Amino acid sequence: MQCSWKAVLLLALASIAIQYTAIRTFTAKSFHSCPIPNPVNCSLSQDADAADRLCDESPTFAYNLSRKTHILILATTRSGSSFVGQLFNQHFDVFYLFEPLYHVQYTLIPKLTQSKSTTDRRVMLGASRDLLRSLYDCDLYFLENYIKPQPVNHTTDRLFRRGASKALCSPPVCESLGAVDLHLEEGDCVKKCGTLNLTLATESCREHGHVAIKTVRVPEVSDLRALVEDPRLNLKVIQLVRDPRGILASRSETFRDTYRLWRIWDGTGRKPYNLDVTQLTTVCEDFWNSVSTGLTRPPWLKGKYMLVRYEDLARNPMKKTEEIYDFLGIPMDSNVERWIQNNTRGDRSSSKHKYGTVRNSAATAEKWRFRLSYEIVAFTQRACQPVLAQLGYRAAASEEELKNLSVSLVEDRDFLPFS
Ligand SMILES: *[C@@H]1O[C@H](CO)[C@@H](O)[C@H](O)[C@H]1NC(C)=O
Ligand SMILES: *[C@@H]1O[C@H](CO)[C@@H](O)[C@H](O)[C@H]1NC(C)=O
Ligand SMILES: *[C@@H]1O[C@H](CO)[C@@H](O)[C@H](O)[C@H]1NC(C)=O
Ligand SMILES: *[C@@H]1O[C@H](CO)[C@@H](O)[C@H](O)[C@H]1NC(C)=O
Ligand SMILES: *[C@@H]1O[C@H](CO)[C@@H](O)[C@H](O)[C@H]1NC(C)=O
Ligand SMILES: *[C@@H]1O[C@H](CO)[C@@H](O)[C@H](O)[C@H]1NC(C)=O
């Protein structure tokens, strides 16, 4: 039994490794073979001719001291990451991509579901880092290796959530609107803009001052260390966390099949014997590991890491957003302000989309208190006790306390960026 199970796992891992190797071989022209320029004087530290030959095929990569900021939103599903993504997507000078690592996952590990084996997740990391590095360099062709069917003539209609990226729905990438900067809903963008021309997308990316990428597919900040330390990048990580009780409630409602057993527990008051508690504990472990790394302030993260609690953002979106932009050293843009004003008032009429962000943010952040039974809340508080304490989320001592909104379960804490 034990033996054959291991054999199957080994085979699976081997096949993933082979696929990954194959992809790397196909893309041998990439960026990695280029020598790293000397940050002091911008010259290439090795033989310049050899460097030219090596890098001939990716001439776009130019080391530029007045360079772009590369923003990574490190999040998990249902933690408010779409909301935070919009804070960048709306900025006129930011090129924003919504979860490009989706394509890596579905190429390498098609059957991976939410928070399954950590081994699987880690297998993805090497490929994910390569892709992120290329995308921050505006090499969108690199993504083609992971899109199925493979794009022809650098065009595709299969880019995941293309419509969530404003730059990919506006000129020069999408000209169909002709006139002014009209705001396109996500679905309209896909309908009206037609096939995505990745050459135009690449140009658009280069024209923007900064690149922001959101992902829920990187477990923790130390998985990004190679990118943070890469002198060719100027990576800043915004780690978004949320009360795990809120995440659980939101996932149970959104991913109804995957979280079916939690809903059964909630409905019947009886915990199913085959409940997969890792759906909860993985989130807590990832938060714990990542936040612990961030809070110990290792030199490699200096100036590169900011922790944001979703609840703080929800309570005071404008102030928190200003803090985030201060940390990044990018001036905030009036589009962002207007978007916040439009989308954090109590207008409920438009929460139609599963990943919608339009709603009363402060109330939304607390809704879980009425969605989860006290039994499940108590279970979560035990399972995630260390991370709740670390992030300043108070345990509810009773059902009364849970449902009484005058009892705050979020302590006031300042998580100052490490600069
Ligand atoms: C750039 O720095 C490298 C290493 O410090 C040095 O070898 C090279 O001569 C410098 N080039 C210029 C143009 O200063
Ligand atoms: C660096 O980037 C800025 C802004 O994109 C541009 O104006 C400038 O010409 C670039 N400098 C070099 C040396 O490429
Ligand atoms: C790709 O471009 C070539 C040359 O322009 C053209 O002949 C071919 O039909 C295009 N393929 C598709 C699928 O559009
Ligand atoms: C994509 O855009 C580029 C740049 O404008 C253009 O040269 C190319 O023909 C376009 N590709 C297709 C398939 O239309
Ligand atoms: C804000 O809402 C107004 C009225 O609905 C709309 O015209 C405007 O485009 C919105 N602005 C943003 C940035 O979403
Ligand atoms: C809710 O909590 C507040 C503050 O602790 C308390 O004063 C109030 O009586 C509570 N309300 C109910 C209905 O228990």
UniProtKB/TrEMBL annotation:
Family named by the database record: Belongs to the sulfotransferase 1 family. Gal/GlcNAc/GalNAc subfamily.
Record-given protein name: Sulfotransferase
Any one GO biological process: carbohydrate metabolic process
Protein topology in the membrane: Single-pass type II membrane protein
Signal peptide boundaries: 1-23
Location of the protein in the cell: Golgi apparatus membrane
Entry's EC annotation: 2.8.2.-
GO molecular function: keratan sulfotransferase activity; N-acetylglucosamine 6-O-sulfotransferase activity
Stored SUPFAM superfamilies: P-loop containing nucleoside triphosphate hydrolases
Superkingdom as given in the UniProt entry: Eukaryota
Naturally occurring in which organism (per UniProt): Nothoprocta perdicaria (Chilean tinamou)
